[in-house]
Amino acid sequence: SSAQPAASVSVPQPIKTIAVVGAGTMGLGIAQLCVQHGFPTILFDLNADILAKAEVAIAAGLGKLVEKGKMPSTEREAALARLRPTTDLAIVQADLIIEAVVEKLAVKHELFQNLAAQNAPQTILASNTSSLPITRLAAAVPHPERVVGMHFFNPAPLMPLVEVISGVATAPAVADAVQALAEKLGKQPVRAADAPGFIVNRVARHFYVESLKVVEEQVAPFDVVDELLEATGFRMGPFRLMDLIGVDTNFSVTSAMFEAFHFDPKFRPSRIQQQKVDAGHHGRKTGKGFYDYSS
Ligand code: NAI
User: Fold this and answer.
1) Class for the domain spanning 18-192
2) What range(s) does the 3-hydroxyacyl-CoA dehydrogenase NAD binding domain occupy (predicted)?
């Protein structure tokens, strides 16, 4: 047909500047990648302590690259100079904004609405969500055609995969731009459909849910489950991995997927995981999860 895109559809500009919103486990790694590959990058978090920790972690991450001979030390300084950490949301303006805040739809909605109000309609709003539908996320945002999923894996500087997810409204040019950017960041982007958990988290969910059931039913203690699965070739057992991911984040992802699959019991969140979250034992980031990291 001769259908033309509607006049209101915004075509993305070339991506020259990036902002990462949320400086937790994922945000700091994504920001490191961006500055490492030459992009001036704003890093925003509400929490000044988390932001300060993120700066230290990024400096250390770049330092490791220098130690391994993968980056000259002068380049480390240049990369750090590209990073602009801030707790002032009003200055968060860029060609591409990648959000990596808590896995809560209402929080992400409000954030995207605020960002839409202070950025050009062409600004791409990408979400690092593990489980929330991109279509639903985009629906409440002006110019939903620029909302897209850009799902990195943990740790973001090291894991090559990025899932690029188009919602119903996402403009093909926007998904293409994000895919090309992922390649510039040295990643292997893969297109995924906007289904609950996309691809990797949907399949991997059972690695966590079933392992938690094994422990709940006292079939084996959690460290034995880890030991056994690691002995079969998994790089990390499920409990060590949940501590790396963040027990709270992993729980939120399971909860969102349980809901999205209409409470299919195979995705039911675990009571012992809920208790860890309630106790503030969120894994490595809090010094304690299933294992203790305080020493
Ligand atoms: P996290 O809990 O480590 O960090 C979240 C950060 O967001 C915190 O620093 C918090 O202060 C900040 N925050 C909360 N509300 C905010 C707001 N309104 N504005 C700005 N900052 C705000 O969480 P994590 O694990 O980094 O997860 C972030 C996102 O990335 C989630 O959507 C999660 O599903 C996704 N993700 C997580 C992975 C993981 O392994 N942890 C892997 C891939 C995706």
Assistant:
1) alpha beta
2) 17-194
* Count of positions (residues) in the chain: 295
Going by the DSSP 8-state scheme, the letter that residue 17 receives in this structure is: -
Nearest to 210 by CA among 194, 233, 229, 231: 229
- pTM comes to 0.95
Catalytic entry in 201, 211, 255, 270: 201
d(CA 115, CA 40): 18
Positive or negative, the CA dihedral 54, 58, 63, 68 is: positive
Starting at the earlier edge strand, list the strands of the sheet with 161-165: 83-86, 41-44, 18-21, 96-99, 124-127, 147-152, 161-165, 188-192
Q: Is the CB of 11 under 6 A from ligand 1?
A: no
As annotated, the binding site for NAD(+) includes: 22-27, 45, 103, 108, 130, 154, 285
User: Would you list the domain boundaries of the chain?
Assistant: 18-192, 201-284
Query: What tens digit of pLDDT does each residue of 80-106 get?
Result: 999 999 999 999 999 999 999 999 999
Residue-level pLDDT at 250:
98
C-beta of 245 in contact with ligand 1 (< 6 A)? yes
* 3-state secondary structure (DSSP) of residue 104: coil
135-194 confidence digits (pLDDT tens): 999 998 999 999 999 999 999 999 999 999 999 999 999 999 999 999 999 999 999 999
Its ipTM equals 0.98
Instruction: Mark whether 151 is an active-site residue.
Output: yes
131 Cα nearest atom in ligand 1: 34
Architecture of domain 201-284: Orthogonal Bundle (1.10)
13, 20, 39 from 79: Cα distances, Å: 23, 15, 8
Q: Residue 159, SS3?
A: coil
How far is it, in rounded angstroms, from Cα 130 to Cα 163?
Answer: 10
Closest CA to 19 of 117, 106, 126, 164: 126
